[in-house]
């Protein structure tokens, strides 16, 4: 009798499921993040005849289905505006928002290295093309820094992996805009050119869903801004949400000062963490990191222990080369949220470059325990094990990293690190093969060219080494090693002029390098004798 009753129960549930009201079913799919099913159910409802108004809400089922479908389509392509920050070549090179052409030390992200805060030098920790140390966690702002020339901006640095768009509008934003074709093969769900925005602005519940759809799904910032302006006017300028949305539109359009006014006005009406993050983002785009820090710190007074604000402060200090202060804030993040991947990765990276691989190993093991399982983590574990003299785990970690590598760039990173391990144990033939394999996977790997050149010098192949160093210095003008090595080789070969030029470039990349300073002094003495 038991199994029979269970079967009958299942049949009853199935019959009840078939009788579920379609709008409720669509809402259930939306709550379970099955947005495509939700959209299809809403489409079926919209194809039927418009129904009567519900007494309690004043809206028809037709309007409810329309609103739910716009929300479902938006959620399919939604990207958090706070984290999405892709600065294009045009914004970087043709920046009209510069406050001062020559900023004071420690007040600009464009002049990294001006406020060294106890961080290791470029001799120990590699830097990006903007001169900032490579962080332990990839974010949009760390992918590649602000270049000094247009040529440097167009060339993709090794850490970026993707070509930078000409403008931010032609980058992520337009790619998001094409989503309407994917989610609706028959054509757009809403014809924006025929919409009477003033009518929708008077219905707040519909207007908010429509705004999100226009802004995120259709990527039509101008229409979204018009709707937000009409809606905030209808709300008598008392609704903080609409002010934030107008600020987002202004930010997208590059009107940063107008965006700043809107976010400040919204904060006066309603204190929200998101609004503080948007305001700080505006200041960072205006290259005012100190003002952004003040905004975050004022936010922390009102929201003590808020992880996103602490993390924002840590990121700014890290970008300004103040590594020790950044590490302190990342520790504060971990006190509030001990599973914060970015904070653990950044502290681990900082410990590794501060010559504490054993402590870094503990942080990376913590990430492994949390379920992070990728090529980069095993790559880092392999390096930490090698420098912590736990040789039994080194090669197995790198093998796992090679197995998990998703693209050729990741594979190149692993082979490059294996080359370093080979140099460390004195097997120069293995090192040579590893660096060659690095270049097979990624032909623009400047560090591998530099290290191959050093190995070629040891074999006595001077001309090959010079060619490799020239390639490395062309690919990565921000690295001092290829310039300095080329200067040394040229000086030994008697080509003093080339040696002096390369030494000067090395000094520009790393002003505190003592060997470069001594070489320049030696060359200048020789020129004086001539």
UniProtKB/TrEMBL annotation:
Biased composition (Polar residues): 140-151
Region (Disordered): 112-153
Gene3D superfamilies assigned: Tetratricopeptide repeat domain
GO BP term, example: non-motile cilium assembly
Entry-linked InterPro entries: BBS8 (IPR028796), TPR-like_helical_dom_sf (IPR011990), TPR_rpt (IPR019734)
One annotated Gene Ontology cellular component of this protein: BBSome
Pfam families for this protein: TPR_16, TPR_8
Protein name: TTC8 protein
Organism: Penelope pileata
Upper lineage: Eukaryota, Metazoa, Chordata, Craniata, Vertebrata
